[in-house]
Amino acid sequence: MLGHIAGRPSPSWDKIQAIVVLLMSYVALRKVPAAGPRPFQRLHNLLKKYTPWQILIGALTTLYAAHHADLLLGLTPAEPEKKMFSRRYTPGYTRGLWILSALDAGFFTSQSIRPKILRDTMSAVFSVFYLFFPKRAVEKNNMMLKVITATHMRRSWEKMLHPVIRLMTWVNAPRLGIRREIVVRLTKEGGYHSDSEVVVTIMFKGSEEEYARSESIILDIPGGGFVAMRPSCHADYLMAWAGQTNVPIVSIDYKKAPEFPFPHGLNECFDIYKMIVATKGACIGLEGSVQPRIALAGDSAGGTFSASVMNMIIEHRPVLPKPVGLLMVYPCMHVGLDFWISNSDLAVIEEEIERGHIPEDILKARPGRGDGMTLNSKAAFMDDQVLGSSFLRALMVMYIGGDTKLDHKSNYLVSPIYTPDHILAQYPRTYIITGEKDPLVDDSIIFMAKMRRAKRAVGADLESDTLRIVSGVSHAFMQMTGVVPEMKELVRVVGEELLDMIKTPQVVQSKEAWGDASLQSLKEEGKGELDLMQVNVRPVTLSNPRQTSAAVLRWEQEYTRDAVTIYEHRRVAYLDQLGIDTHDDDSGHI
Description:
alpha/beta, 9-stranded mixed β-sheet, two-stranded antiparallel ribbon, 25 helices, 13 strands, 48% helix
């Protein structure tokens, strides 16, 4: 209050107010008679017949009732939490969000404490407190997001490195034969982007001998908003994949922004792929006798890097072997805060509707429909508790850095959603999984629609490219594996997809003519006939057909949407924000 009276609300004024209140309390205890002022003396006589325990419980009950008087008297808005959580998210995701929010708030609160052992202890204590007071956790997190820095993000997002959480992860994870970090050295003289050392984490279920003879690897690029989270922060699901697939997981600890803004981290990820191919895996401890089959995977910002690395692989000369498959989990394909879907992107979606790949009713109830004024998911879910608009802005500014010449609306290494058709047509089998309520979900929808259009134009394989939208969840559901048992099944399904990518043999491709769409794309990019010959390929048959188990297909049918049947639900979210009651939606299984 004092800060507002002074016209300068700040933590400093809050501290002054707290000191003033404590001093006033001290004066009241020491200078005023023990029985208190005359009105309180009567109350003192009245309370003599009660025990201290009864007085304590009565006082706490009175305070609790006063604090919730608006709820008890029906003076609150029309159930805002029901509209935000119960209708928006499934029960399982809501529980995970509650736990992660409490952890975030606890780690934010303790971040200034020294030494580290005391900070770790108090972060656990504060997190338990916020579990009992979830509204306070949301308030704390929202306050921190207004002044968020890279240090704040790392302290909060890297909570998986806390000793207690690491112990829980180890107890629940499969026992692995190999889990270690190695350093890969890159040099400009060797044809790489910079002289640097990159740490990669290797996880494998088998023995050292089995690892050395491995002919397949899963190359993982972990997410973390481009600024935080090493592979060990993703250990819960990476170890689960290693145990499930019996395939080595190689996860890259690339340099993070803002110290290393675009394109440093991206270049390191590409260079690691390039070195693995050049050495046939010898740089990471394989025998190096055969070219390993590589499935490229990434979540969130790692999904962005995965697509950008794929673009670099396709454009590289001399030609590099492509991954056998590409997996992206809730990727950010457009590094920007535009709240509208452009007419050109809308046309791509409408084309997919006409072809039957997307149900025809997806745009009928869309708010702002028409003439470039169709709102996207970043607008629909701008109040998201994980990726709110102010938080996204901070991440993007730190990632792009101070490069004033960088055009993020055309650079398809920054924003893969702008990848031209002649590159998209050469993508390998691709699997994207994202949340229905994720602010980034439209990125995945538009990217997949563009890729299908590009591949269709050249007669490439479309059957194995899959977009799954998990009902009733937002961002970061892979991080909830250790705290929400329901999410373990989702991780298992994604592991099955990776295993199917690795196990299915590739089919040799032959050269044929390109379609009109890709030729036009090449002309727009200024490519010549030589460039056309270099990329002029078409698969004879399905290059990597999807052959997942019946259990996975049943899971997808029950818990996900096969395309983009989410816009009616988004309309409900808008109406909820306006306070317009629609209908109860208690569905959701996860």
